[in-house]
Design brief:
Blueprint (H helix, E strand, L loop, with lengths): L3 E5 L3 H13 L3 E5 L3 H6 L5 E5 L7 H11 L5 E5 L4 H9 L4 E4 L4 H19 L2 H5 L9 E3 L5 E3 L4 E4 L2 E4 L2 H12 L4 E3 H9 L7 H15 L9 E4 L3 E4 L4
Parallel strand pairs: 1-2, 1-3, 3-4, 4-5
Antiparallel strand pairs: 6-7, 7-8, 8-9, 10-12, 11-12
Helix pairs in contact: 4-9
Length: about 240
């Protein structure tokens, strides 16, 4: 069965080009020029590719509305907004990925494929998951403080209470926890989580780490668990 992609892009030439390319890749595509219908229709699809600058509603509000209904639905933002504030706002709203225009079509297709693999795994029954190579080797992790990450069910007990993790959050977290007390290079994260070595904006990964600090750090300005090693990567430590 073809995977169904919802494309929300109000620039006709780009929308038509992406629709044709995605169709050639054997995806079923619905292209919309406005955001409000996407909030109503997204559950009929497998993944959303979303522009932020829409005529009827800000794309960030579309992300928030979808996240309220479905924490794990895959969302990729494509936008000409390239400022740090825009990227932070988009990812903080719950988007899984953020690509700035102009972008590589090859890279977009790679990210879509990888994200759909993650989504398929999330939707599988437990017995199928346990036989999958993507099944988390660590099904549950607990901090000394009692905060806990349930990788099997994509949930976490955080300083903000119990939350549902997005699929991408769960996989980035799992990789950091799996290599506890070891510096994880950015390129390793790109290969493991995004599935390739192309240039994903490092700010995208940085913003996932910022999000994790809000979940698990008592002092986000002086993190003890999620530590950035400037110019290299990240270090996870459960014990301060």
């Amino acid at each position: 069965m073809k995977k169904r992609i919802l494309l929300v892009e109000d620039e006709p030439n780009l929308s038509n080009s992406l629709s044709l390319i995605l169709a050639e890749e054997n995806y079923e595509v619905l292209a919309l020029a406005t955001g409000r219908p996407a909030i109503e229709k997204f559950q009929e699809y497998d993944l959303l590719v979303l522009d932020l600058m829409l005529p009827d509603i800000d794309g960030v509000d579309v992300v928030k509305a979808i996240r309220d209904k479905s924490p794990q639905f895959p969302i990729i933002i494509i936008s000409s907004r390239s400022s740090e504030d825009d990227l932070v706002q988009g990812l903080s709203a719950g988007a899984d990925d953020y690509m700035t225009k102009p972008f590589s079509i090859k890279e977009l297709l790679l990210r879509i494929r990888r994200m759909l693999v993650r989504q398929k795994f999330y939707l599988e029954e437990d017995d199928t998951k346990k036989n999958s190579k993507d099944w988390p080797r660590i099904s549950c992790f607990q901090f000394p403080s009692g905060l806990r990450i349930d990788f099997a069910n994509f949930r976490a007990h955080t300083l903000q209470g119990e939350i549902a993790l997005t699929t991408q959050e769960a996989y980035v977290l799992h990789h950091l926890v799996e290599y506890e007390n070891q510096v994880v290079a950015r390129q390793d994260l790109l290969a493991k989580i995004w599935g390739h070595n192309l240039s994903v904006e490092t700010r995208t990964i940085d913003n996932f780490v910022v999000r994790f600090r809000k979940y698990f750090e008592n002092n986000t300005q002086k993190p003890k668990h999620f530590i950035t090693k400037r110019g290299v990567g990240y270090l996870f430590k459960s014990k301060s």
